[in-house]
Amino acid sequence: MTTAAVNGATASAVLVLEDGRVFGGRAYGAVGETFGEAVFATGMTGYQETLTDPSYHRQVVVMTAPHIGNTGVNDEDPESRRIWVAGYVVRDPARVPSNWRSVRSLDEELAAQGVVGISGVDTRALTRHLRERGAMRAGIFSGAALSDTETLLTRVRSAPVMTGADLAAEVATTEPYVVPAIGRKRFTVAAVDLGIKGMTPQRMAERGIEVHVLPATASLDEVYASSPDGVFFSNGPGDPAAADHPVDLMGGVLERGTPLFGICFGNQILGRALGFGTFKLKYGHRGINQPVKDLATGRVEVTAHNHGFAVDAPLEGATETPHGRVEVSHVCLNDDVVEGLRLLDRPAFSVQYHPEAAAGPHDAAYLFDRFAALMEGQRA
Ligand SMILES: NC(=O)CC[C@H](N)C(=O)O
């Protein structure tokens, strides 16, 4: 086996961070090399949903939970058609997966999909490093890709950065498709796919909504082709500051006054469409137990998050925008980051977190009901 030197010891795979820190481990999943932004995710469960969330495109995901792969891989839990993470970092992979739904091991699945990973990493030290220094570029190298640290570091430092990356169209559907309502059809929604997770249209379908999922590049005419009762903007990868087309598209929807709902990237797009800026968080929110406060009710929800950027808006009071007044509706109790926006003069709102909860707690499922109520209200 090819080995590389890390702190005088040998390793069959290395993780090289752009600031020069190197972690040794063993090849996990596919053997080779990969580059991306190193970020940590704290969910104790739901690794399949994490791996297949298109918002993780171009990111090297570090799992803080020490045992990964225990329940293997099943064919029901993926949130999209493939694994999107650019690389995967774990401490202690399951040797023998065990679950009634499991059809193969995670190691096999990563290898089959060509996802380069590394195991045996001191993920606590790595997470503390990323928390202190911030998310940064990284490379994982194993097999023939191993080389001296200087060479690998030069390559990591020439990989693309996340800031300014316009990635939605790389992961979104290229063809429109329809997710039928379950039971009686009550509403039609046009959903702009910026990297949508499969559970999102599912949660709408469960509420009698027929969802017309459209490519990220859809025009305003295409959005309105199905005569929708509401328009939805999904989660997705990349920097919202680079997502000019979705911002323009949303501006058109706001002008028409159609009920509007956005999740995660969709919240950042709403922020921009209203004239707010967005900024990069030092290390982001990625996990399934983040406390969020609904400022209108004072109620605290435990929620799923996956975001590295945030909207820059005042937490208190209403702000005048070209589309009427807006207020921050939700805030993260860990760090006061904006977690939701609500327009006061238009039927439009969005959240930075994940009410579809795949994986994660279902505290925020009421937001899909709120969207249905907005559409009901417009009809009356
Ligand atoms: N899950 C998402 O929609 C993520 C949005 C954006 N790419 C961010 O990292 O903040």
Automatic annotation (TrEMBL):
Pathway(s) where this gene product acts: Amino-acid biosynthesis; L-arginine biosynthesis; carbamoyl phosphate from bicarbonate: step 1/1; Pyrimidine metabolism; UMP biosynthesis via de novo pathway; (S)-dihydroorotate from bicarbonate: step 1/3
Region (CPSase): 1-187
Ranges annotated as spanning the membrane: none
E.C. designation(s): 6.3.5.5
Catalysis performed (reactions): hydrogencarbonate + L-glutamine + 2 ATP + H2O = carbamoyl phosphate + L-glutamate + 2 ADP + phosphate + 2 H(+); L-glutamine + H2O = L-glutamate + NH4(+)
UniProt KW Ligase keyword: yes
Record keywords: Amino-acid biosynthesis, Arginine biosynthesis, ATP-binding, Glutamine amidotransferase, Ligase, Nucleotide-binding, Pyrimidine biosynthesis
InterPro entries xrefs: Anth_synth/Amidotransfase (IPR050472), CarbamoylP_synth_ssu (IPR006274), CarbamoylP_synth_ssu_N (IPR002474), CarbP_synth_ssu_N_sf (IPR036480), Class_I_gatase-like (IPR029062), CPSase_GATase1 (IPR035686), GATASE (IPR017926)
GO-annotated molecular function: carbamoyl-phosphate synthase (glutamine-hydrolyzing) activity
Residues reported to bind L-glutamine: 55, 236, 238, 265, 268, 306, 308-309
Domain named Carbamoyl-phosphate synthase small subunit N-terminal: residues: 11-141
PANTHER family membership: CARBAMOYL-PHOSPHATE SYNTHASE SMALL CHAIN (PTHR43418:SF7), MULTIFUNCTIONAL TRYPTOPHAN BIOSYNTHESIS PROTEIN-RELATED (PTHR43418)
Family under the similarity heading: Belongs to the CarA family.
Summary of the function given for this chain in its UniProt record: Small subunit of the glutamine-dependent carbamoyl phosphate synthetase (CPSase). CPSase catalyzes the formation of carbamoyl phosphate from the ammonia moiety of glutamine, carbonate, and phosphate donated by ATP, constituting the first step of 2 biosynthetic pathways, one leading to arginine and/or urea and the other to pyrimidine nucleotides. The small subunit (glutamine amidotransferase) binds and cleaves glutamine to supply the large subunit with the substrate ammonia.
Name the UniProt record assigns to this protein: Carbamoyl phosphate synthase small chain
